[in-house]
Here is the input.
Amino acid sequence: MFRSQGKTIGFVPTMGALHAGHLSLIQSSVKQNDISIVSIFVNKTQFNEVNDFENYPKPIEKDVEVLQKNKVDYLYIPEYEDIYPDNYQFRVVESHDSTFLCGKSRKGHFEGVLTVVMKLLHIIAPDKAYFGEKDYQQYRLIDKMCKAFFLDVDIVPCPTIREPDGLAMSSRNLLLSEKERIIAGQFPALLQSDQTPSEIAAKLEQLGFRIDYITDTDGRRFGAVYLGNVRLIDNVEL
Here is the structure.
């Protein structure tokens, strides 16, 4: 309908628990498009652990207020059955770039991500869709998927938004204890240091982090760690 009226559509898919990182994506969409649409859908298929899915923060009333204040035109909140009428029988599978970094330790994660994004892009049919560079591997996979399947949408990367101590903003940060949240700022600080990945990993372990990976590849440094039961990811350009 909007395209037939000559209006452009910007789309920001989220899992809710909106923070300043999401708002940067939303503000870019509002600025660059005639119509902005946000979705909130906690996508069960991309979670590796049931507890992680069940404990994911869901402050929907607060999220709605935030979207209204930021001039979002439409909010799409589907149910599982709306997105997966086939009960996840059909999936988008990527065979190379999803097999390392987060894909190595989170089996099936990117299948869930790519499948839900593919479905949402078909439902919303935006001109532009916005993704944060904090999830850089995810952004690159989605961008390549859209090109591979000839989807008529521009995937727009947006810079990582950080807390005052440097921690990349994430809905998962809300799950950190007060003590863990203080320690968490050491993760980005070390990731951005001149030390080697192995040196960074050793120092993070001394601070109480469990390491998934600290790796330099393609001109960026990628890190994924656990603090308590919370998984944190980040990346910086070298």
DSSP finds ten helices and eight strands in the chain. The longest strand covers residues 210-217. The chain has a mean pLDDT of 96. The radius of gyration is 18 Å.
